[in-house]
Write a structure and sequence with these properties.
Blueprint lengths: L12 H13 L8 E5 L7 E7 L2 E7 L9 H14 L7 E5 L4 E5 L6 H7 L3 H21 L17 H20 L10 H11 L7 E2 L8 E4 L2 E4 L6 E2 L3 H8 L8 H19 L3 H29 L9 H12 L2 H4 L2 H11 L2 H8 L3
Antiparallel strand pairs: 1-2, 2-3, 3-5, 4-5, 6-9, 7-8
Helix pairs in contact: 4-7, 4-8, 5-6, 5-9, 6-9, 7-9, 9-10
Length: 358
Amino acid sequence: MDAGVIQDNRIPREDKARLASLLSERGEWASCSRVEPLAGDGSDRRFYRVHLNGRSLIALISQRSGADLDEVDSMWLIGRHLASKGLPVARILAARLDDGVFLLEDLGRVHLHDMARRFASSARIQGLYRKAVELLARLHRTAPDGFSSEWCFDTPQYTPQFVLNRELLYFQTSFLQSFLGLEAADLGLSQDFQALAERAGEERGGLVLHRDFQSRNLMVHRGSLWVIDYQGMRLGPPEYDLASLLLDPYVMLPDRVWQPLAELYWERARPILGRSRHVFWERFQTLALCRCLQALAAYAFLGKEKKKSGFLEHIPAGWRRLNQLLQGPAGRTVPAFRKLIRRITSHAPSMERIQRPR
C-alpha cells in the first residue's frame, strides 16, 4: 500500500494515509484511480470523491475531539438509525471511527440549491420543494421511533438555554458586534432574547429536528431527494426544520411559493404536532426568527473569522428575510430588537456593510 498514489497536493498527507488504509482493508485500493477534493461546508470536515473502476464513493474525514461522544459517533449512530427507518440518506459503506473516516454512497453533485437556482419557473421550484416538504414530514414522523438523545454530540435537546447561547447570543456577538461593530452595552436585547428563547425552546417531548435542513443539505439523485449532514439531529421542535427549508436565505422563496408548502407540511405532520393550526403557525414564526438569526451569525462568523468568504454573499438575503419576519407576528414579541433593527436600517454605514459584505 502506497498513499503516494494519491498525487493531489491539496490532500493532507494524513488524509491520504487514512484513505489508503481503509480502501486497502476493503480490497479497493488497487482500483482507485483518483481522489478528488470537494468543497466543504461550514465545518472543518474534509470531503473527497474517490474514483474507482467505473464508480465512485465519497470519503468524509472528521477530526476526533477526544470527548466520550463527538461528531464522528453521532454521524455513525444517527446515520444508521435513519437508514434503518428507510429514510433516504447516503449509505455508510465503511467507517473507521477511531480515525474519523467514513466511506459513503456517492449521491452525485447536484443539491436542491442548485436546482432551485437553475429553474426560473416558480411551478418547477414548487414541485421540487413539495418533494422536500413531503420528505421532511416523513422524517419527523418516523425518526423519533427508537431515537436516543445519547447519540447527540452537540447537546441532546433544543432547550431555551441552547437557543439563547447558540442562536441569539451568537447573532449578537458574531453579527451585531463583530460584523457590524456595535457595542454590546448599547444593544438592550436581554429581555427580548430571554423571552424569545423560552418560547422557542419549549419542552415538547419525543420530537426531533435535523437543525440544518436546508437546500444545500438535500441532494438530488436518481430523481429523488436525499438528506445529508444529519449528525446534528437532536430532540426539539420540527417546525424549526420547516423554517430552515422554506425561509432559507440561500434560495429566498417568494411568499406565494413557501406559504402553500408550509400548509402542506401542516397536513402531513399534523399527527405528531398535536396542536391547532394557529399554534403551528405561531411556533413556525418564532422558530423562523431564531433560525434566521443563527444563519446571519453563521454567515458573518464563517465569512469573517474562518475566512470562508463565500458565506458573506448571503448576508443581504438573510437581512431581507429578517426584516420580513419582524414585520410579522414574531416581530411584535421582540419590540426592543425590532427597534434596533430599524435603527441599523437607517444607519448608512451599517447598511453599506450589510449590502456589500466583504
